[in-house]
Amino acid sequence: MAPVSGKVQQLKVHTEGGVVTTAETLMVVVPNNDLLEVTASVQNKDIGFIQVGQSVIIKVESFPYTRYGYLTGKVKNINLDAIEDPKLGLVFNVIVSLEDNYLSTKHKKLPLSSGMSVTAEINTGMRSIISYLLSPLEESVTESLHER
């Protein structure tokens, strides 16, 4: 018996009498009517600026945000250990709880489903435009004044 009600997906065995190994995942149960959560990968260089409770903007790749908008959520959990990602290097998984399971347009609600690709933008603070423009110059000056 499953601990939650939902739909069975990613069934591993499709034949009667099929053989499975110990600790093998047989299926995934996607809960009904629960708010979705996003698992976001945050690079090692950025994880120091992320805290539980921070606001997050979620853009769903299936629905261009310029037309359909975006979702909002909060950082719920931050993994304490990094994982090696072949493309990004060391990353930390961050769990984001969403405030809604759908995107709203003028005429209807667009439901989301588990497994959709998203981009998570975590607001870590405010900077002025001049700060962005002067940042490369400041880094160059700071680095040039150090001896090796």
Tell me what you see in this structure.
The strands form three sheets. Strands 3, 4, 5, 6, 7 and 10 form a six-stranded antiparallel sheet that branches. The protein folds into two domains: 1-32, no CATH class; 35-125, Efflux pump adaptor protein, beta barrel domain (Elongation Factor Tu (Ef-tu), domain 3, Beta Barrel), CATH 2.40.30.170. With 148 residues, the protein is mainly β. The protein is built from two helices and ten strands. It is found in: Cell inner membrane.
Any chance you could write out the topology, listing elements then pairs?
Layout: E1 6-9, E2 28-31, E3 37-43, E4 55-60, H1 65-68, E5 71-78, E6 83-85, E7 89-98, E8 102-104, E9 109-111, E10 118-122, H2 129-144
Antiparallel strand pairs: 1-2, 3-7, 4-5, 4-10, 5-7, 6-7, 8-9
CATH class division of the largest domain? Mainly Beta
Counting DSSP E segments of at least 2 residues, the number of strands comes to 10
CATH architecture of the largest domain: Beta Barrel
What string, H for helix and E for strand, traces the elements in order? EEEEHEEEEEEH
